[in-house]
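INTERNAL AUDIT FORM
Audit reference: QA-55
Scope: verify that the stored structure record matches its stored sequence.
Auditor: D.O.
Record contents follow.
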Amino acid sequence: MSKPKAPRRVGDKEALSVGTQIRGSAQKLNLVAGLIRGRKAGDALNILAFSKKAMAVDARKVLASAIANAENNHNLDVDALVVSEASVGKSITMKRFATRGRGKSTRILKPFSRLRIVVREQEEA
């Protein structure tokens, strides 16, 4: 006896990719995600490739993974893909300390973020 198959987390014409541990704050990653929301997948890849934001490198990898999932796993047309959702959340936070004067120390927080990108095949209107 095996477990029943898990239901899909997105619709029939959609594909999903999640970057679980992207180094940087969720606030900075959300600025990059805002650049690609609602855009065509090809245009979004170009925007991320030429963006000056450092977080755009990791966001581009997650978007490329979502496009590959759509093509290989769900047989969707790559030319008709649109970024329907790009949501950002907090992940773990590494805690470090820096030594200060007079035997004191200061806490340094190094945050990680999650990026969830959903691409949808859009019909020609």
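Auditor finding: record pair retrieved intact. The longest strand covers residues 81-99.
Action required: none
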